Amino acid sequence: xxxxxxxxxxxxxxxxxxxxxxxxxxxxxxxxxxxxxxxxxxxxxxxxxxxxxxxxxxxxxxxxxxxxxxxxxxxxxxxxxxxxxxxxxxxxxxxxxxxxxxxxxxxxxxxxxxxxxxxxxxxxxxxxxxxxxxx
Length: 135
Known about the structure:
By secondary structure, the chain is an alpha+beta fold. It has a single domain, classed as Nucleoside Triphosphate Pyrophosphohydrolase (Alpha-Beta Complex). It has 2 helices and 7 strands, in the order ββββαβββα. It has helices at about 50-60, 120-130, and strands spanning about 5-15, 20-25, 35, 40, 65-75, 80-95, 105-110. Strands 1, 2, 3, 4, 5, 6 and 7 form a 7-stranded mixed beta sheet that branches. The relative contact order is 0.25.
C-alpha cells in the first residue's frame, strides 16, 4: 500500500510597486531550486496564514508586512508532496533585503513570463498578466 504524499501549506506575498512585482529565487539544495517565486514560505503547525507571512517576510527580507486580500489559492501535486499555496496581496513596510543569500528582483509585470516559476504558480501568473492596465 502506498502512502499519500504529505501536504505542505505555503503562503506567498504578491508585492507590487508601480508595475513591478517582488520575486526571489529558490536557493540550491531545496525543493524546486533555481525557480523564481513570490516570497513567503511554509506554515508551521497551528500557524495562521497571516502569521506565516509575517514571520517569513521578516526572516527572509527583513521587513514588516501589511497583508491584504487573498488573491488566489491552489493545490498542486508534485511527485513527493502536495503544496497548498495561498497568495496574498501585500504591502511592505521598508525596503526588502535578501537576508538568506537568495536572489531578489523587482520584475515588471510583462517580464514575469520570462522567468522560471514553479508549476503551481502558473494560474497566478495568468491572473497577474490579466491585470495589466487595470492596476
